[in-house]
Amino acid sequence: MALVSLRNVTKAYPPAERGGAPVVAVDDVSLEIEPGDVYGIIGYSGAGKSTLVRLVNALEPATGGTITVDGREITALPERDLRAVRLEIGMIFQQFNLFNSKTVEGNIAYPLLVAGWPKPKIAARVAELLAFVGLADKAKNYPDQLSGGQKQRVGIARALATSPKLLLADEATSALDPETTGEVLALLKRVNREFGVTIIVITHEMDVIQSIATKVAVMDGGRVVESGDVFDVFSAPKQASSARFVSTVVKGVPSPAEVAVLRERHEGRLVTLSFRDGDASQASVFLELARAGVEFELVYGGINDIQGRAFGHLTLALRGPDASVQAALAAVADRIDVTEVA
Protein backbone atom coordinates (compact mmCIF):
# COMPACT_ATOMS: atom_id res chain seq x y z
CA MET A 1 0.00 0.00 0.00
CA ALA A 2 1.25 3.48 -0.87
CA LEU A 3 2.42 5.60 2.03
CA VAL A 4 1.15 8.74 0.27
CA SER A 5 -1.66 8.64 -2.26
CA LEU A 6 -3.01 11.65 -4.13
CA ARG A 7 -6.12 11.15 -6.23
CA ASN A 8 -7.30 13.94 -8.55
CA VAL A 9 -6.02 16.58 -6.15
CA THR A 10 -6.74 20.22 -6.96
CA LYS A 11 -5.86 23.44 -5.17
CA ALA A 12 -7.44 26.68 -6.36
CA TYR A 13 -7.12 30.14 -4.81
CA PRO A 14 -9.65 32.97 -5.09
CA PRO A 15 -9.29 35.16 -8.19
CA ALA A 16 -6.82 38.03 -7.96
CA GLU A 17 -9.49 40.42 -9.22
CA ARG A 18 -13.21 40.53 -8.64
CA GLY A 19 -14.97 38.62 -11.36
CA GLY A 20 -11.78 36.86 -12.43
CA ALA A 21 -11.12 33.14 -12.64
CA PRO A 22 -9.75 31.20 -9.65
CA VAL A 23 -5.98 30.68 -9.63
CA VAL A 24 -5.36 26.94 -9.97
CA ALA A 25 -2.00 26.04 -8.41
CA VAL A 26 -2.47 22.24 -8.44
CA ASP A 27 -4.62 20.75 -11.16
CA ASP A 28 -5.95 17.17 -10.98
CA VAL A 29 -2.77 15.56 -9.65
CA SER A 30 -2.65 11.82 -8.92
CA LEU A 31 0.48 10.20 -7.45
CA GLU A 32 1.35 7.05 -5.52
CA ILE A 33 4.43 7.21 -3.27
CA GLU A 34 5.52 3.86 -1.87
CA PRO A 35 7.20 3.27 1.51
CA GLY A 36 10.95 3.70 1.14
CA ASP A 37 10.76 5.87 -1.98
CA VAL A 38 12.86 8.96 -2.45
CA TYR A 39 10.34 10.70 -4.67
CA GLY A 40 11.41 13.83 -6.52
CA ILE A 41 8.89 16.44 -7.61
CA ILE A 42 10.44 18.88 -10.03
CA GLY A 43 9.24 21.90 -11.97
CA TYR A 44 10.03 25.47 -12.84
CA SER A 45 9.03 28.27 -10.48
CA GLY A 46 5.25 28.48 -10.32
CA ALA A 47 4.69 24.88 -11.43
CA GLY A 48 2.79 24.08 -8.22
CA LYS A 49 5.29 21.79 -6.53
CA SER A 50 5.61 23.71 -3.24
CA THR A 51 1.83 24.05 -3.03
CA LEU A 52 1.56 20.31 -3.51
CA VAL A 53 3.87 19.58 -0.57
CA ARG A 54 1.84 21.93 1.65
CA LEU A 55 -1.23 19.87 0.80
CA VAL A 56 0.52 16.64 1.78
CA ASN A 57 1.24 17.88 5.31
CA ALA A 58 -2.13 19.62 5.48
CA LEU A 59 -0.72 23.10 5.96
CA GLU A 60 -3.28 24.03 3.33
CA PRO A 61 -6.54 22.26 2.50
CA ALA A 62 -7.09 20.76 -0.94
CA THR A 63 -9.91 22.21 -3.03
CA GLY A 64 -10.74 18.83 -4.52
CA GLY A 65 -9.62 15.22 -4.61
CA THR A 66 -8.29 13.05 -1.79
CA ILE A 67 -4.93 12.77 -0.03
CA THR A 68 -4.12 9.68 2.04
CA VAL A 69 -1.05 9.53 4.30
CA ASP A 70 -0.18 6.23 5.96
CA GLY A 71 -3.68 4.92 5.50
CA ARG A 72 -5.49 8.05 6.78
CA GLU A 73 -7.40 10.26 4.42
CA ILE A 74 -6.42 13.74 5.59
CA THR A 75 -8.45 15.97 3.30
CA ALA A 76 -11.49 15.95 5.58
CA LEU A 77 -9.83 15.70 9.00
CA PRO A 78 -10.45 18.44 11.59
CA GLU A 79 -7.43 20.44 12.79
CA ARG A 80 -7.16 18.56 16.11
CA ASP A 81 -6.68 15.28 14.21
CA LEU A 82 -4.29 16.82 11.69
CA ARG A 83 -1.85 17.66 14.49
CA ALA A 84 -1.34 13.94 15.13
CA VAL A 85 -0.83 13.30 11.41
CA ARG A 86 1.82 16.03 11.20
CA LEU A 87 3.84 14.33 13.93
CA GLU A 88 4.38 11.54 11.41
CA ILE A 89 5.64 14.01 8.78
CA GLY A 90 9.01 15.78 9.09
CA MET A 91 9.74 18.95 7.09
CA ILE A 92 12.97 20.64 6.07
CA PHE A 93 13.07 24.03 4.36
CA GLN A 94 15.19 26.06 1.97
CA GLN A 95 15.91 28.78 4.55
CA PHE A 96 16.25 26.32 7.46
CA ASN A 97 13.48 27.94 9.62
CA LEU A 98 15.44 27.53 12.84
CA PHE A 99 14.70 29.45 16.03
CA ASN A 100 17.57 31.92 16.35
CA SER A 101 16.88 32.32 20.08
CA LYS A 102 17.34 28.59 20.73
CA THR A 103 20.52 26.54 20.73
CA VAL A 104 21.06 23.67 18.33
CA GLU A 105 19.81 21.19 20.90
CA GLY A 106 16.90 23.48 21.73
CA ASN A 107 15.83 23.55 18.09
CA ILE A 108 15.95 19.77 17.83
CA ALA A 109 14.11 19.34 21.13
CA TYR A 110 11.28 21.71 20.21
CA PRO A 111 8.98 19.24 18.38
CA LEU A 112 9.48 16.73 21.20
CA LEU A 113 8.41 19.32 23.78
CA VAL A 114 5.31 20.05 21.70
CA ALA A 115 4.60 16.32 21.53
CA GLY A 116 4.83 16.07 25.33
CA TRP A 117 7.90 13.87 25.65
CA PRO A 118 9.48 13.64 29.13
CA LYS A 119 12.75 15.57 29.53
CA PRO A 120 15.08 12.56 29.99
CA LYS A 121 13.72 10.98 26.83
CA ILE A 122 14.10 14.27 24.95
CA ALA A 123 17.73 14.60 26.03
CA ALA A 124 18.54 11.09 24.84
CA ARG A 125 16.81 11.58 21.49
CA VAL A 126 18.53 14.94 20.87
CA ALA A 127 21.94 13.41 21.63
CA GLU A 128 21.22 10.53 19.26
CA LEU A 129 20.26 12.86 16.42
CA LEU A 130 23.18 15.22 16.98
CA ALA A 131 25.53 12.26 16.61
CA PHE A 132 23.71 11.08 13.49
CA VAL A 133 24.03 14.42 11.68
CA GLY A 134 27.60 14.97 12.91
CA LEU A 135 26.95 17.98 15.15
CA ALA A 136 27.49 16.60 18.64
CA ASP A 137 30.07 19.33 19.29
CA LYS A 138 27.62 22.09 18.27
CA ALA A 139 24.83 21.33 20.76
CA LYS A 140 25.23 24.60 22.67
CA ASN A 141 25.77 26.79 19.61
CA TYR A 142 23.13 29.12 18.20
CA PRO A 143 22.07 29.12 14.52
CA ASP A 144 23.98 32.32 13.70
CA GLN A 145 27.19 30.52 14.72
CA LEU A 146 26.67 27.81 12.10
CA SER A 147 27.37 27.51 8.38
CA GLY A 148 24.50 26.95 5.94
CA GLY A 149 25.24 23.24 5.72
CA GLN A 150 25.32 22.91 9.51
CA LYS A 151 22.00 24.75 9.77
CA GLN A 152 20.43 22.33 7.33
CA ARG A 153 21.80 19.40 9.32
CA VAL A 154 20.05 20.84 12.37
CA GLY A 155 16.91 21.15 10.27
CA ILE A 156 17.14 17.49 9.28
CA ALA A 157 17.73 16.40 12.88
CA ARG A 158 14.72 18.44 14.04
CA ALA A 159 12.56 16.95 11.26
CA LEU A 160 13.54 13.45 12.41
CA ALA A 161 12.96 14.11 16.11
CA THR A 162 9.55 12.42 16.37
CA SER A 163 10.65 9.46 14.16
CA PRO A 164 8.38 10.34 11.23
CA LYS A 165 7.65 7.89 8.45
CA LEU A 166 7.66 10.68 5.87
CA LEU A 167 10.12 13.53 5.33
CA LEU A 168 9.30 16.48 3.07
CA ALA A 169 12.28 18.44 1.71
CA ASP A 170 11.18 21.69 0.05
CA GLU A 171 14.10 23.13 -1.96
CA ALA A 172 16.30 21.96 0.92
CA THR A 173 19.59 22.51 -0.95
CA SER A 174 18.80 25.62 -2.99
CA ALA A 175 20.56 27.96 -0.54
CA LEU A 176 23.71 25.81 -0.36
CA ASP A 177 26.91 25.69 -2.39
CA PRO A 178 27.57 22.59 -4.54
CA GLU A 179 29.92 20.88 -2.06
CA THR A 180 27.56 21.41 0.87
CA THR A 181 24.64 20.29 -1.29
CA GLY A 182 26.42 16.98 -1.87
CA GLU A 183 26.95 16.52 1.86
CA VAL A 184 23.29 17.21 2.66
CA LEU A 185 22.09 14.86 -0.08
CA ALA A 186 24.40 12.14 1.25
CA LEU A 187 22.85 12.65 4.70
CA LEU A 188 19.34 12.35 3.26
CA LYS A 189 20.36 9.10 1.57
CA ARG A 190 21.44 7.81 4.97
CA VAL A 191 18.10 8.86 6.47
CA ASN A 192 16.31 6.88 3.81
CA ARG A 193 18.60 3.86 3.97
CA GLU A 194 19.17 3.54 7.73
CA PHE A 195 15.82 4.73 9.11
CA GLY A 196 13.60 3.64 6.23
CA VAL A 197 12.08 7.11 6.02
CA THR A 198 10.20 7.89 2.81
CA ILE A 199 11.32 11.24 1.38
CA ILE A 200 9.56 13.63 -0.97
CA VAL A 201 12.07 16.05 -2.51
CA ILE A 202 10.70 19.28 -3.99
CA THR A 203 13.27 20.97 -6.22
CA HIS A 204 13.97 22.76 -9.49
CA GLU A 205 17.48 21.29 -9.63
CA MET A 206 17.76 18.28 -11.91
CA ASP A 207 21.13 17.24 -10.49
CA VAL A 208 19.49 16.84 -7.06
CA ILE A 209 16.96 14.42 -8.54
CA GLN A 210 19.70 12.59 -10.44
CA SER A 211 21.72 12.20 -7.24
CA ILE A 212 19.12 11.07 -4.72
CA ALA A 213 15.69 10.22 -6.13
CA THR A 214 14.39 6.80 -7.12
CA LYS A 215 11.22 8.15 -8.76
CA VAL A 216 10.26 11.55 -10.13
CA ALA A 217 7.22 13.54 -11.17
CA VAL A 218 7.60 16.54 -13.49
CA MET A 219 5.11 19.37 -12.85
CA ASP A 220 4.17 22.09 -15.31
CA GLY A 221 1.29 24.53 -14.92
CA GLY A 222 0.00 22.75 -11.82
CA ARG A 223 -0.21 19.37 -13.49
CA VAL A 224 2.01 16.28 -13.42
CA VAL A 225 3.07 15.92 -17.04
CA GLU A 226 5.30 12.87 -16.59
CA SER A 227 6.26 10.50 -13.79
CA GLY A 228 8.13 7.27 -13.27
CA ASP A 229 11.54 5.87 -12.38
CA VAL A 230 14.21 8.56 -12.54
CA PHE A 231 16.29 6.56 -15.01
CA ASP A 232 13.35 6.10 -17.40
CA VAL A 233 12.28 9.76 -17.30
CA PHE A 234 15.85 11.03 -17.69
CA SER A 235 16.96 8.62 -20.39
CA ALA A 236 13.81 8.83 -22.51
CA PRO A 237 11.57 11.79 -21.56
CA LYS A 238 8.22 11.65 -23.30
CA GLN A 239 7.06 15.23 -22.73
CA ALA A 240 8.58 18.53 -23.84
CA SER A 241 8.60 19.85 -20.25
CA SER A 242 10.54 16.82 -19.06
CA ALA A 243 12.97 17.05 -21.97
CA ARG A 244 13.73 20.70 -21.14
CA PHE A 245 14.64 19.76 -17.58
CA VAL A 246 16.69 16.77 -18.63
CA SER A 247 18.65 18.93 -21.08
CA THR A 248 20.04 20.94 -18.16
CA VAL A 249 22.09 17.93 -17.05
CA VAL A 250 22.10 15.70 -20.12
CA LYS A 251 23.33 16.80 -23.54
CA GLY A 252 21.13 15.16 -26.17
CA VAL A 253 20.98 15.63 -29.92
CA PRO A 254 22.57 18.99 -30.84
CA SER A 255 20.25 21.85 -31.79
CA PRO A 256 20.28 23.26 -35.36
CA ALA A 257 22.47 26.15 -34.22
CA GLU A 258 24.91 23.75 -32.56
CA VAL A 259 24.91 21.54 -35.67
CA ALA A 260 25.93 24.51 -37.79
CA VAL A 261 28.92 25.14 -35.51
CA LEU A 262 29.86 21.46 -35.50
CA ARG A 263 29.83 21.33 -39.30
CA GLU A 264 32.17 24.31 -39.46
CA ARG A 265 34.62 22.68 -37.09
CA HIS A 266 34.48 19.00 -38.07
CA GLU A 267 34.55 17.10 -41.33
CA GLY A 268 32.51 13.98 -41.93
CA ARG A 269 29.00 12.64 -41.43
CA LEU A 270 27.38 13.60 -38.15
CA VAL A 271 25.35 10.96 -36.29
CA THR A 272 24.14 10.72 -32.70
CA LEU A 273 24.43 7.37 -30.94
CA SER A 274 22.10 6.97 -27.96
CA PHE A 275 23.27 4.56 -25.26
CA ARG A 276 21.06 3.13 -22.51
CA ASP A 277 21.78 0.70 -19.71
CA GLY A 278 21.41 -2.82 -21.11
CA ASP A 279 22.14 -1.82 -24.72
CA ALA A 280 25.44 -2.33 -26.51
CA SER A 281 28.49 -0.84 -24.82
CA GLN A 282 30.40 2.12 -26.18
CA ALA A 283 33.46 -0.08 -26.59
CA SER A 284 31.65 -2.59 -28.78
CA VAL A 285 30.16 0.14 -30.98
CA PHE A 286 33.50 1.90 -31.43
CA LEU A 287 35.13 -1.44 -32.25
CA GLU A 288 32.50 -2.02 -34.96
CA LEU A 289 33.32 1.35 -36.51
CA ALA A 290 37.05 0.66 -36.39
CA ARG A 291 36.61 -2.77 -37.99
CA ALA A 292 34.74 -1.14 -40.85
CA GLY A 293 37.63 1.24 -41.40
CA VAL A 294 35.62 4.27 -40.28
CA GLU A 295 37.41 7.10 -38.51
CA PHE A 296 35.34 8.76 -35.80
CA GLU A 297 35.61 11.81 -33.59
CA LEU A 298 33.43 12.58 -30.57
CA VAL A 299 32.14 16.13 -31.11
CA TYR A 300 29.15 16.52 -28.76
CA GLY A 301 27.30 14.89 -25.85
CA GLY A 302 28.19 12.74 -22.89
CA ILE A 303 27.29 9.73 -20.76
CA ASN A 304 25.48 10.10 -17.43
CA ASP A 305 25.16 7.80 -14.45
CA ILE A 306 22.03 7.52 -12.34
CA GLN A 307 22.65 5.33 -9.32
CA GLY A 308 24.76 2.86 -11.25
CA ARG A 309 22.80 2.91 -14.53
CA ALA A 310 24.34 4.69 -17.50
CA PHE A 311 22.75 6.46 -20.44
CA GLY A 312 23.59 9.29 -22.78
CA HIS A 313 24.02 10.55 -26.31
CA LEU A 314 27.27 10.84 -28.25
CA THR A 315 27.44 12.73 -31.53
CA LEU A 316 30.27 11.55 -33.76
CA ALA A 317 31.81 12.88 -36.95
CA LEU A 318 32.38 9.82 -39.13
CA ARG A 319 34.90 9.77 -41.97
CA GLY A 320 35.44 7.04 -44.52
CA PRO A 321 33.94 5.58 -47.72
CA ASP A 322 30.15 6.02 -47.77
CA ALA A 323 29.60 2.28 -48.11
CA SER A 324 31.81 1.53 -45.10
CA VAL A 325 30.09 4.16 -42.93
CA GLN A 326 26.66 2.89 -43.94
CA ALA A 327 27.56 -0.73 -43.27
CA ALA A 328 28.99 0.10 -39.83
CA LEU A 329 25.91 2.11 -38.82
CA ALA A 330 23.62 -0.70 -40.01
CA ALA A 331 25.58 -3.17 -37.89
CA VAL A 332 25.06 -1.20 -34.67
CA ALA A 333 21.56 0.18 -35.33
CA ASP A 334 19.88 -2.97 -34.00
CA ARG A 335 21.67 -2.58 -30.66
CA ILE A 336 21.47 1.19 -30.04
CA ASP A 337 19.52 4.12 -31.44
CA VAL A 338 21.28 5.90 -34.29
CA THR A 339 20.06 9.38 -35.28
CA GLU A 340 21.25 11.14 -38.41
CA VAL A 341 22.07 14.75 -37.52
CA ALA A 342 20.22 17.00 -39.95
Overview of this structure, please?
The protein has a six-stranded mixed β-sheet with strand order 6-7-8-3-9-10, with helices on both faces. It has a four-stranded antiparallel β-sheet with strand order 2-1-4-5, covered by helices on one side. It folds into two domains: 4-88 and 164-246, Rossmann fold (3-Layer(aba) Sandwich); 256-340, ACT domain (Alpha-Beta Plaits). It is α/β, with parallel strands linked by helices and 342 residues long. Helix 4 packs across helix 5. The radius of gyration is 25 Å and the shape is elongated. It has helices at residues 49-56, 79-86, 104-114, 119-132, 148-160, 178-195, 206-212, 230-235, 240-246, 256-265, 282-291, 322-332; strands at 4-13, 23-33, 38-42, 64-69, 72-73, 89-93, 166-170, 198-203, 215-220, 223-229, 269-276, 295-306, 309-319, 337-340. It is 36% helix and 29% strand. The longest helix is centred in the middle third of the chain and has 18 residues, at 178-195. It is built from twelve helices and 14 strands.
* Secondary structural class: alpha/beta
Return Rg in Å: 25 Å
Strand content: 25-35%
Secondary-structure element pattern, one letter each:
EEEHEEHEHHHEHEHEEHHHEHEEHE
Count of folded domains: 2
The helix tally amounts to 12
CATH class of the largest domain: Alpha Beta
* Count of β-strands: 14
Strand count, sense and barrel status of the largest sheet are: 6 strands, mixed
- Write out the CATH superfamily name of the largest domain: P-loop containing nucleotide triphosphate hydrolases
Strand order of the largest sheet: 6-7-8-3-9-10
**Overall helicity:** 25-40%
CATH topology title of the largest domain:
Rossmann fold
Summed over residues and divided by their number, the pLDDT gives a mean of 91
Shape: elongated
The CATH architecture of the largest domain is 3-Layer(aba) Sandwich
Report, as a whole number of angstroms, the end-to-end distance.
48 Å
Poorly predicted regions are none
